[in-house]
Each structure stands twice: as structure tokens, then as C-alpha cells.
């Protein structure tokens, strides 16, 4: 109907409005109401254009990964009160969309004679404080030189990547080095649970020995059940979808970009919804916990 009214507006200098409305079978009162609302309509369109510009900047800053929920959260953090449905509409009208996650092929290969640890997590991927529950996993990255393997340990209280390691193999030393990094940052509490799948890297003597030396507790999910380690696998899904690259020319380039993604974006900039505190970065969630601990002390 807006197109009809716009046509009448354009032709009213050559033909009477009454004639045009009768010809196009619309009420004159409706046309005049549309005409009176033109200024308000133009103001709304200008406001939408301004909002679209802000959304585009935030979308680019997120490497093209943020959808409406996290764009809405970012705008609120900037002190801008905007209805989420309006953000969804503006993004939809301008073709701005976040990334969706793809399924990945797992690397889990259980050692034949290994004795797996008990499951101390039980699919409860929450923690009351940082340094009490970690989940770990391994994934592969495709490069022109062959696969680059990435092992990580994720803190369930903050979803911060506290330890990670990359190499051209996925032997036990890969996960041990990642755990040493997590422990070296001084954020693991005695008795901290280290949960993983039953892959040979995690049932290895090297990792079991390191866990004992660090005074941690080992935990493993069931064989063939991706849901028992879903939080660790979720991080890799986020990384592969949001890093913005599908193929690297060499391992060195891939290592540099993965390091940048984890340290400068995922841990410090990427928003996720905390059940109590709303949208925060992993670093901000850890700082909230630390402030609460200081106040309690």
C-alpha cells in the first residue's frame, strides 16, 4: 500500500488527489494520513540507518559472528537501550547474520588397555568458583603443511581457556603441555577436576602422572558419548565457526591466528550469557568471582 500512496504523492501535481484515489480504489483520508506521517516515517528510517551502522561495526568487530542476542548485549554495554526485536528486524532487512555451528569429526581413540577414570562431572558443566573444574579436548586444524592439533583446557566457572597447546601431532605431550600452562597461570585449586573423553592421550601415563603431581583429580566421560564432554567440544565449534578462516597456508600462520583468537577475542572480548550476571566475557566473569571472594574474605 505504501507504493500506491507514493505513486499518488508523485502524480498529485498533474492529477487531482480525489481522481487518483478513486482510480486506485483507496480512501482519500488514508492517503492524507499516510502523508501526515511522512516526517515520522523518515525519522524512523534515519534512526534505523544509524542503528544499522552501529550493528555493522559491532558485527565486524566480532569477526562476523555475533547474532542479534550478542549485538543487543553489546549495545546495552555501550549504554544504548534498543529493543531486541528491532535489532533482529534491522539485521534481517540488511542481511546481517551471525554464524551457526557445524558438526565436527572427533579424534577420540580409546587406548585398548587403559583404565579410565570415573566420571566426576556427570554432565554438570557448571562450577561454583574458577579453578575447580576443567574440561579438555583435542581438535585438528587444516593447513597447507598438514594438520595442526590443538589441545585446550576450559574453566567451567568462567568458560575461559586457561591452557592450550598446539603441535603437528596429538600425542600425550600435547595435552600435558596444555595442562601445565593452565597450572602455570596459578588459577587451579587443589583437587581441581580435569575432565576429558577416554582418548589415548588422556588415559596416558604422562597425563595421569602430571595430574597427580599437580594435586588434581582426573575425570572421564563414557566411550562414544559426545554429550559427556559437550562443553569442551562446544569451544572448538565456536573457534572453528568464528575464527573466520577455513584453511591456513602453513602451521605457523594457523598458530598465530588461533593464539590471537583465544587471547585477544575469546577470553577478553567475546560475550556469553552467564545465568546470573547476563552477558559478560570470560575474563569479566573471572573478575566477578575474584571480587566476590575478596568481599567474602
TrEMBL record:
Name listed for the protein in its UniProt record: IS3 family transposase
Which purpose does this protein serve, as stated in its record?
A: Involved in the transposition of the insertion sequence.
| InterPro entries linked to this entry | HTH-like_dom (IPR025948), Integrase_cat-core (IPR001584), RNaseH-like_sf (IPR012337), RNaseH_sf (IPR036397), Transpos_IS3 (IPR048020), Transposase_IS3/IS150/IS904 (IPR050900)
Q: Which PROSITE patterns match?
A: INTEGRASE
Residues of the Integrase catalytic domain: 126-290
Entry's SUPFAM superfamilies? Ribonuclease H-like
Cite the Pfam families for this sequence.
HTH_21, rve, rve_2
Amino acid at each position: 500500500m505504501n507504493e500506491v500512496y507514493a505513486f499518488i504523492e508523485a502524480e498529485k501535481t498533474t492529477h487531482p488527489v480525489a481522481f487518483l484515489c478513486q482510480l486506485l480504489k483507496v480512501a482519500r483520508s488514508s492517503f492524507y494520513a499516510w502523508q501526515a506521517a511522512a516526517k515520522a516515517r523518515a525519522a524512523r528510517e534515519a534512526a534505523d540507518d544509524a542503528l544499522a551502522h552501529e550493528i555493522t561495526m559491532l558485527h565486524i568487530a566480532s569477526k562476523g559472528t555475533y547474532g542479534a542476542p550478542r549485538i543487543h548485549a553489546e549495545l546495552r554495554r555501550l549504554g544504548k537501550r534498543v529493543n531486541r526485536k528491532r535489532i533482529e528486524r534491522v539485521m534481517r532487512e540488511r542481511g546481517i547474520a551471525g554464524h551457526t555451528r557445524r558438526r565436527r569429526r572427533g579424534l577420540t581413540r580409546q587406548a585398548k588397555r587403559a583404565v579410565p577414570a570415573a566420571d566426576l562431572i556427570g554432565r554438570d558443566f557448571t562450577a561454583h568458583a574458577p579453578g575447580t573444574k576443567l574440561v579438555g579436548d583435542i581438535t585438528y586444524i587444516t593447513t597447507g603443511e598438514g594438520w595442526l592439533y590443538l589441545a585446550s583446557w576450559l574453566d567451567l566457572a568462567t568458560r575461559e581457556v586457561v591452557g592450550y597447546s598446539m603441535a603437528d601431532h596429538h600425542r600425550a605431550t600435547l595435552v600435558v603441555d596444555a595442562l601445565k600452562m593452565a597450572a602455570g597461570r596459578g588459577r587451579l585449586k587443589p583437587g581441581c577436576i580435569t575432565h576429558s573423553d577416554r582418548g589415548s592421550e588422556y588415559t596416558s601415563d604422562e597425563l595421569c602422572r602430571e595430574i597427580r603431581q599437580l594435586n588434581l583429580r582426573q575425570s572421564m566421560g563414557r566411550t562414544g558419548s559426545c554429550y559427556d564432554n559437550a562443553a569442551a567440544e562446544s569451544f572448538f565449534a565456536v573457534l572453528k565457526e568464528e575464527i573466520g578462516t577455513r584453511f591456513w597456508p602453513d602451521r605457523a600462520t594457523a598458530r598465530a591466528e588461533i593464539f590471537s583468537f583465544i587471547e585477544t577475542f575469546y577470553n577478553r572480548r567475546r560475550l556469553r550469557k552467564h545465568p546470573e550476571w547476563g552477558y559478560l566475557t570470560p575474563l569479566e566473569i573471572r573478575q566477578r568471582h575474584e571480587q566476590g571472594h575478596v568481599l567474602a574474605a
